[in-house]
Amino acid sequence: MANDKQTTKSNKKDAEKDKKKGGLRKYFKELRAELKKVVWPTRQQVVNNTGVVLVVMSLMGLFLFAVDTGLSYGIRALIGLGAG
């Protein structure tokens, strides 16, 4: 029983030592390797996607403007009815 606890403690210490080995250098080495695996979009894909985002944002802006204006008009009408 005590031997099991000792083994667990030594395993934890070994794991901590392994984490510290290499540290920052290992992290950046692995980061660079992962970035090389990424399939980056072409310039044309980025331009197309940016255009789509701008169009959708504009449409959503117009939609929200219309909803806000409509609700504002409706609330003003209700307040006007209550005051009269």
Automatic annotation (TrEMBL):
One of its GO terms (molecular function) is protein transmembrane transporter activity. Keywords: Cell membrane, Membrane, Protein transport, Translocation, Transmembrane, Transmembrane helix, Transport. The keyword Magnesium does not apply. The chain crosses the membrane at residues 46-67. The keyword Membrane applies. GO terms for cellular component: plasma membrane. Residues 1-21 are annotated as: Disordered. It is a single-pass membrane protein. Residues 11-21 have a biased composition (Basic and acidic residues). One of its GO terms (biological process) is intracellular protein transmembrane transport. Pfam families: SecE. InterPro entries: SecE_bac, SecE_sf, Translocase_SecE/Sec61-g. It is found in: Cell membrane; Membrane. Belongs to the SecE/SEC61-gamma family. Component of the Sec protein translocase complex. Heterotrimer consisting of SecY, SecE and SecG subunits. The heterotrimers can form oligomers, although 1 heterotrimer is thought to be able to translocate proteins. Interacts with the ribosome. Interacts with SecDF, and other proteins may be involved. Interacts with SecA. Essential subunit of the Sec protein translocation channel SecYEG. Clamps together the 2 halves of SecY. May contact the channel plug during translocation. This is Protein translocase subunit SecE. It comes from Ruminococcus albus 8. The lineage of its organism: Bacteria, Bacillati, Bacillota, Clostridia, Eubacteriales.
